[in-house]
Amino acid sequence: xxxxxxxxxxxxxxxxxxxxxxxxxxxxxxxxxxxxxxxxxxxxxxxxxxxxxxxxxxxxxxxxxxxxxxxxxxxxxxxxxxxxxxxxxxxxxxxxxxxxxxxxxxxxxxxxxxxxxxxxxxxxxxxxxxxxxxxxxxxxxxxxxxxxxxxxxxxxxxxxxxxxxxxxxxxxxxxxxxxxxxxxxxxxxxxxxxxxxxxxxxxxxxxxxxxxxxxxxxxxxxxxxxxxxxxxxxxxxxxxxxxxxxxxxxxxxxxxxxxxxxxxxxxxxxxxxxxxxxxxxxx
Length: 283
Ligand code: PAF
Known about the structure:
This protein is an alpha/beta fold. Helix content is about 40%, strand content about 20%.
């Protein structure tokens, strides 16, 4: 496994791949790697000749400094996990100054409203921060294909929009959410839940599956009220939002339109940990 912290060295390592036009698969992460991440790396290894994984906790996408501070940093075990998958992996672990040449600051983008709802509404500036760092990482790696998890569905749309706006030559592959055995979406944040909490947190996915079952027969407003009540009635939960949105526009929907695709989204706090998940309602 090759580990580098600088853009110049990364480019040097990748030069033979650029010259031979090998497919370069890239998976950007913030570390604290779990089985979901590792499955995605395996997929990248299977599909690309060269695979780069970045580990970088990006300050510009955190609107809450406490959240940034609490974000788990587990570099040693991340590197061991990656090493156990393949010794051909290239790991890019820059520090803030190596990636942001100046003060870490977000650029501002026009995402045509994609960034104004749900995660964008609850975490102002978050998607400008994500797009800024993904753009810097893409320019450093110059991947053929980049992998993103469907759990952060809104983020995948933001990244696709960034690629279009910046005319980047990279294909975005969205990979299915990996779940724990009880259905809880795998996330680095799950580590902050108690053992009991981790079992109870599957409640989010149970709600989403209930919504999917009722989607074609129950009015959106009734579904919305039922979900909101279910969270109120269940100890220790704080629902931030439940939305049904048209995809890929993410226009929030109050009723079903013919020939449109919809997805349900939830963000909620449990034991103080912010969890998100979503489900396709009519594939
Ligand atoms: O999904 C994440 O882990 C981050 O938002 C990303 C894409 C690595 C950018 O920092």
